[in-house]
């Protein structure tokens, strides 16, 4: 008699099967045929890798006061006349290594950007599903809130909320300061997800599979969660990819204005603001290199978002 296959012998084959389907799918084929998407993915991977593993990759710890040398402050990059080989991109006014500061600063910018987008997705998708599926007064109320939020510039709302949070909690811990910043960016970011999901839900709720689920007595919450939600996540994924770059730029703007992340944990925006004071005196590297890294991160993420939008669009296949 043949032995009955156990769970342990069947489960490992499932993962390679899903991987094989992905590699044979249209999305991976589109990625391998797009040089722009490959280049953007490589740049984004390098930036994320250096940010996440900055403790091991960075040549120095720029925020360890015991290792800073004021005698090495404002040194030019290593290829210039007064540069030192140990400081490849030069140092700032405190003697901090620019290259190491970029890695640590990118970690903070990426964390704030991804976290704020995650909060926006959760709030926006939930309210969009509710508005599109319930309709009536609920839909009208949520959409009027969206209209009000869209009437204010996102950077102005974020600046207001962050300023109010810092005024209410002047001696707050760094963790609370990060939370206020994430909430400030998410406060206007959720609107686009809500409107996108609402439009897709209005289409999906009248289809046959939703009507069949209603007939057999499935609750509205279960229909939204198990049936409608998976079919409206495609545009959300594309929008979230693009909005990560916008969130990072908003965080950098707030930090440049002095109301972003705490001074003890400077991000790319803080590094640009510090270097801006020395730009006209000839120390251009202090602000130019953080600006270039910010542009590289935002541009690579935007290019990946544009590719993903085209790859998931069935009309372009």
TrEMBL record:
The chain crosses the membrane at residues 36-58, 108-133, 145-169, 175-193, 232-257, 284-308. Its main location: membrane. SUPFAM superfamilies: MetI-like (SSF161098). Residues 106-305 form the ABC transmembrane type-1 domain. Keywords: Cell membrane, Membrane, Transmembrane, Transmembrane helix, Transport. It is found in: Cell membrane. It is a multi-pass membrane protein. GO terms for biological process: transmembrane transport. One of its GO terms (cellular component) is plasma membrane. It holds the Pfam family OppC_N. Belongs to the binding-protein-dependent transport system permease family. This is Dipeptide transport system permease protein DppC. It comes from Piscinibacter sakaiensis.
